[in-house]
Every structure is written in structure tokens, then in C-alpha cells.
Design goal:
By secondary structure, this protein is an alpha+beta fold. The protein has 10 helices and 11 strands.
């Protein structure tokens, strides 16, 4: 039960740190303001309005008693005194009836309080608080007519409610605004650190990172910067080491080629030449796989034009292309081309028909390469992305394959923040689907 409730609350909470911090700061302020407003509204404002309305109704009852008991001269004199001192306007409308249409507002505290005080004192009455801006029109059934009384709204409603509401809401908004400014300054270093980490994880160049913010955030930033420099140093050392190995291994391979050219027995020479060629190809693919991708710069280019030119270089009518005219992408152009070459080469080795398709779905570019070859068993979809992995079936019969094509393509795709999936093609072969975020 508690686990389900906790999960439901987590779904409702905002995902970003800034909005969570704002919620932590703003919630107590809003709750406090609402509590103060409710307490004031209930214990002070409503009670004050109730006392003012009760006093007004008592004065009206006095006027009714005067009209019942005094002479015409005294009625007029006392009415004038009421109009002068209490800001009343009283007049008697003979042969008039109360209006049939009620205009009382059930949601208005002023209307509700006035109705409650009038009901025990008078059997028939009618009032309107909306017809005039500053006064209330009250009509009471009296003998053969209606006694009409106009009085100011301030007699039954405290005017300080607007000022109080302003002082309640304005400081709350000011506090929340200050909290937003401070939270922005606190979360900005975290956002910069996250952006630098994401950029570095995709293999892009990160400019000199300067940690800022609170002590803990600066410490995390310094550790990230140190880790980044260690990884770059390690990759550079690896590249230098592999360059040395490449040079050292190519030299004896070249001497072996020269020795084979001098052998008179063509059968033995041809057999050994094939082994040397295979060794050289394996070395080249291994160096390509191990080469650091941080040397390539990120650029904005038309990926549709890149795919079109890549397919065109094969000069193969069995490769079909389906894509929009222009699709802009921000990434490392040479790596994307290497990824496409690996996948198309792999498809052409084992199939006769290859189909390349490019689509853009919202903020994702999808590249599909499928063939009509023998395909790959579904149980091997994860294994083929491992370096130097081969399937002991039709796809491993060719000696020139060293099992690095899909592994290189997977690394390039993931370095751009994308994914690569293998599925069964509609023609029975392999379908490779690459998804790249724009």
C-alpha cells in the first residue's frame, strides 16, 4: 500500500531539481498564507461584518418602530436625522410591492450575513448589493407599501479586506520570486556539469570546464574535470601505443611480402600471401576499432546527402535508397559515414538486395538498413555487438571478416546518444535500425 502511494507521489512530483527546490520553498509559504487568510477571514473579518450588519439591522428596526408609533412630523424629523448622521436614505413607497426577482448572491459573505440578520426581524424583504457600486438597496414590506432604504456598503463590510489581501499576496510573491532567483543560481552549475558530462559521454570536445556554485557542486565539478583529463590522457596514450604497434607490425609484414615475391613455387606463395593479407586486414580493422573518436569534431551537416553520397560510391543497382531530400543533423560526419559503410558492407557480403531508408520521427532520426540474406538468429542479436565475435554459421564463412563491423557501428551510434537494434527483415534477412536524437 505505502509503496504504491509512494510511487504515485513520485509521479506527481516534478522531475527537475529546480522545480523540486521551488516546490520545497514555495509550499510552506503558500500554506502559511492560506492559513493566515482563513484564520483572519473566519475569526476577524466575518465576525466584524456580522457585528456591523447586526448593528445596521437594529437601526433599521428602530426606523420601522418610528414609522409605526410617531406622528408624521416626528417621522420626517427623525428620518432627516438618520439621513444626516447615519448616511441613510429612507423613503416610503405607497402601493408598491417587493420585486419578484431575487438577486442575492449565495457565494457572497456580505449577502449571506445580511440575509441571516434580516430573516429573524422581517417576514418580507428584498435587497440588492450589485445594482449600485457604493450603496445597498434594501426594501422591506411595510403596511400597504414598501419602505426603501439606501445605505453604504461600508456599513456592513470592512473595507480593509483588500489591503489585507494585498499585504498577504504581495510578500508571498516577492519571497517566491527571490527563491526562484536563488534557485536558478544554485541549479545553473549542476545543469552545466550535466551538460558537460553528456557532451563528454558522446565523445564531443568539452571546452575548459570551470566548476562553480556551492562547495559540494564545485567538488563534483573538479572531480569530473580530473576524470575527463585522465580519460583523454589514457586515450591519447592508447592511440600512440597503437600507432607504434602498427608501425612495428607493418614493417615485418612488408618484408614477408617481399620474401613471398621471390618464392618460385606459386602454390605456396599464393597460400602464404592469403594469410599475410588476412593478417594485414585484421590489423587494420583492429586499429580502426581502437582508434579514439575524440579527434573528430562535431559539425552540422545534411545526413540525407551523406547517405546518398555513401550509397552512390558503391555503384550497385541492388542498393535501393528511400529518404527525404534534406535532414539536418549535428554530429561527427566521418564517424557516421564509417558506421554506414560497415553496415552496408556487412549486408552486401551475405545478401543480394540491400535497402537503405531514412525517416525523421519527431526529434529522432531513424536509419534502417535491411537485406535479403540468411539473417542472424534472434538469440545472437546481443552477442554480435561484442568485439571479434563471430557466428559459426553462414555469416562467418568469409575469412576476411574479423567480427568488428557491428561493434564499431554500435560504438559510433552510442557515442552520438543513439541506439542500434537488430530485427528480422521482411525479406527474411537482417534489419538494422539506428535511432539518433536530433
Amino acid at each position: 500500500m505505502f509503496y504504491g502511494l509512494n510511487k504515485f507521489i513520485k509521479k506527481l512530483l516534478p522531475k527537475q531539481l529546480f522545480y523540486r527546490g521551488l516546490l520545497i520553498v514555495a509550499t510552506p509559504i503558500i500554506v502559511l498564507q492560506i492559513t493566515i487568510l482563513i484564520v483572519f477571514f473566519d475569526s476577524l473579518w466575518i465576525k466584524t461584518n456580522k457585528g456591523m450588519t447586526r448593528s445596521l439591522v437594529s437601526e433599521i428596526v428602530t426606523i420601522i418602530d418610528i414609522y409605526n408609533n410617531e406622528s408624521h412630523y416626528n417621522k420626517q424629523m427623525i428620518t432627516d436625522l438618520y439621513n444626516q448622521n447615519f448616511n441613510f436614505s429612507v423613503r416610503f413607497l405607497e402601493n408598491e410591492k417587493l420585486p419578484d426577482i431575487k438577486v442575492e448572491r449565495w457565494f457572497s459573505p456580505m449577502d449571506r450575513t445580511l440575509r441571516r440578520e434580516l430573516k429573524p426581524k422581517f417576514n418580507a424583504y428584498w435587497f440588492n448589493t450589485m445594482a449600485h457600486k457604493e450603496v445597498v438597496d434594501l426594501r422591506i414590506k411595510f403596511r400597504e407599501g414598501v419602505l426603501q432604504i439606501f445605505f453604504p456598503k461600508e456599513r456592513i463590510q470592512a473595507s480593509s479586506i483588500r489591503i489585507f489581501a494585498l499585504w498577504i499576496t504581495l510578500p508571498a510573491f516577492l519571497l517566491i520570486l527571490v527563491a526562484i532567483i536563488f534557485l536558478k543560481n544554485q541549479t545553473r552549475p549542476i545543469i552545466k556539469l550535466a551538460e558537460a558530462s553528456e557532451k563528454f559521454g558522446r565523445g564531443e570536445d568539452v571546452e575548459e570546464f570551470r566548476p562553480s556554485g556551492a562547495l559540494e557542486i564545485r567538488k563534483a565539478g573538479y572531480e569530473f574535470d580530473r576524470m575527463r583529463k585522465r580519460i583523454i590522457r589514457h586515450l591519447n596514450q592508447r592511440s600512440e601505443m597503437l600507432s607504434g604497434i602498427s608501425h612495428d607490425l607493418r614493417t615485418p609484414l612488408t618484408r614477408i611480402k617481399l620474401q613471398l615475391a621471390l618464392i618460385k613455387d606459386m602454390k605456396i606463395s599464393k597460400k602464404l600471401s592469403g594469410d599475410v593479407y588476412e593478417m594485414e586486414k585484421m590489423l587494420n580493422e583492429y586499429l580502426q576499432f581502437s582508434k579514439s573518436t575524440f579527434s573528430d569534431k562535431t559539425e552540422t551537416f545534411d545526413i540525407s546527402e551523406l547517405i546518398k553520397s555513401t550509397v552512390k560510391k558503391y555503384e550497385n543497382a541492388d542498393i535501393s535508397l528511400d529518404q527525404p531530400e534534406k535532414t539536418i543533423f549535428n554530429g561527427r560526419k566521418n564517424l557516421i559515414q564509417r558506421c554506414l559503410n560497415n553496415l552496408i558492407d556487412n549486408a552486401l557480403k551475405y545478401a543480394t538486395k540491400v535497402k537503405v531508408k531514412l525517416t525523421k520521427i519527431r526529434k529522432t532520426i531513424v536509419i534502417i538498413i535491411e537485406d535479403d540474406g540468411p539473417g542472424i538468429p534472434a538469440s545472437e542479436y546481443e552477442n554480435v555487438f561484442k568485439p571479434f565475435y563471430k557466428i559459426d554459421k553462414s555469416r562467418s564463412e568469409t575469412k576476411s571478416s574479423v567480427g568488428l563491423g557491428l561493434s564499431i557501428s554500435s560504438d559510433i551510434t552510442r557515442s552520438h546518444g543513439g541506439t542500434i537494434e537488430l530485427r528480422k527483415s521482411e525479406t527474411g534477412g537482417l534489419k538494422v535500425m539506428i535511432s539518433l536524437p536530433v
